[in-house]
Write a structure and sequence with these properties.
Shape of chain A: elongated
Largest sheet of chain A: 6 strands, parallel
Strand content of chain A: 25-35%
Largest interface: A-B, 58 and 58 residues
Strand order of the largest sheet of chain A: 3-2-1-4-5-6
Helix content of chain A: 25-40%
Distance between the termini of chain A: 58 Å
Oligomer: homodimer
Structural class of chain A: alpha/beta
Chain lengths: 438, 438
């Protein structure tokens, strides 16, 4: 058999050890599936003196120059996470003619187009299936299997941590702080949970998905984000009463705008009708729903994170590249796309759910309805609950018909100023509707 | 731009016209995505004098020799269906150095391995994403995205016609003949529905999926089939009472056997617990659930048939091949696999649902339970319903703990022979359990 295909890992965290372990235990079958043997060359870590589970002895090194210069390495697998130095290492590996496989959503969301261009110029591949939705194949289906479609909409649950938290809030009527502590105890959420609960992680992934689905360049800053910190357990109870679940939904779609097609890209806790498939995706699971003009609606569901599912995606990319190396195939040329024209969030039209705490006396609801009406926002449903009989306050839950988000914000400003009448504007959440219902 | 990539279609039914129409309306964007223009060269039909919706004038021909010999054709798309002459045309196209894209599950199930070998020898590709589950990407995810996994189980709803019929039987308490007539009226079922309702179509697709998932050669005759003709509306009512839906489930998995690993491949109306994702896949929709050692459980769901979803899959393959032609990439060498060792259906261990019509007098149930017990089949639940007070008959619905199918058949033979006591052995259906529950 010809020379083995050399693989270097940058990073040996849980995913890195998972990949290393699978390479060791799967040597024979991977050789059959690829046509050449795969050989682990080196594993870059900060402290090479400390042994890592699953990484064979003698492979650990903290010398990045040695790893990147090793002439026996064909494929560099980047699993460090974070923006730098990961981005720089990827660029250097590509520039020196190595194929790169990465699970790094932040780097791909922020620097994907320029890195893909480097790869294309050097005739090597940069693959990143593991950057979005862990073990669920979605990058490759969007790049290949759905390529004949005009994609009209991508709707996804792509952050397992928050999906776990929202599922707990819904099923146990628990409050945010409690489920955050639980998620941290279980290792799902980090000590500083901002990246998950503020939707940053989901925005990175959505930017990557939108780029692939709509053939545009999307900056993650262009994604409008609303986090889950302000949700209350009773929002889930009200939502259920109205026939909805609440999910941190990442949505991308293209609609005509005044100057041409516009991309709408949002991450927000969103009411999803309970008969939608996405409403039943619970716990740490992820799902991506793609709507194409030919294929119709296709759903991909599975484990969105974790060492083994992520290793599954990383290794799929490694095997793909290795088959190219083994057969001497050249990578396809990368198409280049223009930056997306992004619709400002205040111009997005959607239905809304509003929860307000008001003084419990006559005329308050009429005042609120009047303000909404003057801003051309019509009501779909109203629930009024006596919240605190002693304090004489009540809670009003309103769902609107489709309304421009900016107009709603103006109206809510006026509503919040109804002194002595409106005590708090609580949750303001979009309600999901698929393309056919809009 | 270089010479266009020439495409010939064999067949101009609904899928063929869909492909032709998409090629015409998507000319520009497909050229961008591929790097070269695609040009329709010819469309083979039986009667070239009759115009076809969506097929441009002057392209129709009934001269197969001319189509297969056209030097400007790079990709032949076979959409005729059926075994011959489709198989022969595919082989001739491959042998003459053309890439082939097919939606033909029968040809791929029966002759896939030998045709893939022809393609490999000639250095061309044979792609067949559309042969299973229409617009849902599944061939490519199994071949590529899940390639690093040891697949332990494939469980699928891959016949839209029967899924529509079973959904109607469940939701409207309608009987088989009625929903068959409705499916025929709607164009879902053919005048002779055997291929759908006897599980033949699903068995072709399962054989293809098992080959890819388990890296073996599987003959469609090796798939154990049970059709849906004998189901009664009350089976759905009993199943619901027990917490199940009934789906025509195609299941493949590998288990250790006396002489090495054995493939279990079955198509049967199967009870599926209502909290399983597959239990809620209704109407003509399809779904494929794959369980891998790394990825865990991944679900793919979408439209399993229809002109546009099938065209989506056909065109994905066409664009994939066209990118290879455009960049001069050579196809990967095909791996060759050994025939599967298939477990005989009577050695399969599974839980069962049994519906029996019995004489309504004391001791009958005891007699039945005694026979089952002597065959080491233990009962999980029993429902006895007074079916017909005048005729003094009752219906007994039994679910068993896991039992060897052959032992159960022996027991049922003895039970059927309880003269004057057991009047009919009605439905005998397996109950689905995923790997973790077995």
């Amino acid at each position: 058999m010809a020379e083995a295909i050399g693989i270097a890992l940058l990073g040996a965290g849980t995913v890195g050890s998972g990949v290393s372990r699978a390479l060791a235990s799967g040597t024979e079958r991977y050789a059959t599936r690829v046509g050449r043997e795969l050989a682990l060359r080196g594993v870059l870590v900060r402290d090479a003196g400390r042994a890592r589970d699953g990484v064979p002895e003698g492979h650990l090194t903290s010398d990045v120059e040695a790893v990147l210069a090793d002439p026996g390495t064909h494929v560099v697998v980047e699993l460090m996470g974070g923006e730098e130095p990961a981005r720089g290492y990827i660029e250097r590996a590509l520039s020196s003619g190595r194929h790169v496989v990465t699970a790094n959503k932040e780097v791909m969301a922020k620097h994907g187009p320029e890195l893909l261009a480097v790869a294309s110029r050097r005739g090597v591949r940069l693959l990143y299936e593991a950057a979005v939705a862990g073990g669920i194949p979605i990058i490759s289906p969007l790049s290949r299997d759905l390529l004949a479609n005009e994609i009209t909409e991508v709707t996804a649950i792509i952050n397992g941590t928050t999906n776990f938290m929202l599922t707990e809030m819904a099923q146990r009527a628990a409050e945010y702080d409690e489920v955050l502590a639980e998620a941290q105890r279980l290792g799902y959420a980090e000590a500083d949970p901002a990246s998950d609960v503020d939707g940053v992680d989901a925005a990175y992934k959505l930017a990557i998905l939108c780029g692939l689905a709509f053939h545009v360049v999307v900056s993650p800053e262009a994604v409008a984000r609303q986090g889950i910190r302000d949700l209350a357990a009773r929002d889930f109870a009200y939502a259920r009463e109205l026939g909805y679940a609440i999910k941190l939904l990442a949505q991308g779609r293209v609609e005509p705008g005044p100057g041409g097609d516009e991309l709408l890209a949002t991450v927000a806790p969103t009411l999803v009708a309970r008969d939608e498939p996405l409403a039943t995706v619970d716990g740490v699971r992820n799902a991506v729903q793609v709507e194409g003009d030919l294929a119709g609606r296709v759903l991909f569901e599975g484990a969105g994170a974790g060492a083994r599912p992520t290793a599954s995606a990383v290794l799929a990319d490694v095997l793909e590249v290795a088959r190219d190396v083994a057969t001497g195939r050249l990578p396809p040329e990368a198409a280049t796309y223009a930056p997306a024209r992004v619709r400002p969030p205040d111009r997005i039209l959607t239905r809304h759910y509003l929860r307000l705490t008001v003084a419990d006396h006559a005329g308050v609801l009429a005042g609120i309805a009047g303000i909404l009406g003057r801003h051309e926002i019509s009501l779909a449903s109203v629930i009024q609950v006596e919240a605190d009989a002693r304090a004489r306050t009540a809670e009003i839950v309103i769902t609107t018909h489709p309304a421009i988000a900016g107009r709603l914000q103006e109206a809510l400003g006026e509503i919040a100023a109804l002194e002595g009448e409106v005590l708090e504007v609580g949750s303001v959440l979009p309600i999901y509707a698929d393309g056919s219902a809009r």
